[in-house]
């Protein structure tokens, strides 16, 4: 079948601003949006620019605004979109470099700001750091994050206040805050208690809806908020 | 962005919460002014009360009641999720429950406020 694929394109060297370009593309119901973008790039216009790497929902490179919602182009299929007219735009709220490629520097700076690594003050153990299955399960959900930025760039609080640390960084912090082996909880909670930390969350749930890994993002944010309150009580 | 992003229940719940919040704030400003008038200019205060009692005034009061009721119910929904994050799994159901309570409580209240318009 033929589908009408509208892409929000922008080349800073040629265009005054972003503009929609329509492409008529042959598609199968099981094709992914990434397949259609490849078809345009390989067969119609080689200048179309987008990120993708593994193309199987693992690397998180190809998050985009697809039919008005943040999705991974390599995971969402034509049949799931339910219509023959579809739109693809870069992730909202992030500076566009070209076409569907956004500047992720700020996003990764926020990721680094929550210290996303195991902090241990004691001497390194001679064997692995053991943990009970129950303790491991406590933070299992937030280990799944692939840093695609679909959550952070779907958040109206982030659109309004780009200094907000954002859902993805909080998810990464959650992964260590609730890890029984980690000793950096106080430092991370201090970082996230900032006015641009967890308190900017308005429980809008766009992040949870956008997460291609099915992480309960809003729940993780509220659990971190509760941990900050309990620590200060 | 707000218009371009296709909203689901959570975003709609937040948008209505914001809109109703701003509406309540505007009313509070009016309310401060009309209470001030009761001391400063009783004649003007009576005129304002007549406007409140007019059909348009009653319609506005009904909308104010709707804004207050929605804001209160959705506020409780957020409080429930803040205290017990497990309820985030059911945020859509909680929102639909809000609308059920909104209808059950709001319709009789709207009837009482609007009844005089129809001469009853």
Structure commentary:
The complex is a heterodimer of chains A (233) and B (120). Chain A has 233 residues and is α+β, with helices and mostly antiparallel strands. Chain A folds into 2 domains: 2-102, Beta-grasp domain (Ubiquitin-like (UB roll)), CATH 3.10.20; 105-232, Alpha-helical ferredoxin (Fumarate Reductase Iron-sulfur Protein, Chain B, domain 2), CATH 1.10.1060. Chain A is 32% helix and 15% strand. Chain A contains 9 helices and 7 strands; from the N terminus they run ββαββαβββααααααα. Chain A has helices spanning 33-44, 78-81, 105-113, 133-137, 156-160, 167-177, 185-192, 206-210, 217-232, and strands at residues 2-9, 19-26, 63-66, 69-72, 85-89, 96-98, 101-102. In chain A, a hairpin with a 2-residue loop joins strand 6 (96-98) and strand 7 (101-102). In chain A, helix 7 packs across helix 9 (217-232). The radius of gyration of chain A is 20 Å and the shape is elongated. The termini of chain A are far apart. By secondary structure, chain B is an all-alpha fold. Chain B is elongated and about 55 Å long. In chain B, helix 1 (9-40) packs antiparallel against helix 2, helix 1 (9-40) packs across helix 3 and helix 2 (42-53) packs across helix 3 (55-83). Chain B has one domain: Up-down Bundle (3 helical TM bundles of succinate and fumarate reductases), CATH 1.20.1300.10. Chain B has helices at 9-40, 42-53, 55-83, 91-114. The relative contact order of chain B is 0.12. The mean pLDDT of chain B is 94. Chain B contains 4 helices and no strands. Chain A binds chain B through residues 65, 67-69, 89, 92-93, 154, 156, 159, 202-206, 208-209, 216, 218-219, 222-223, 225-226, and chain B through 1-2, 4-6, 8-11, 13-14, 78, 81-83, 85-86, 88-89, 91.
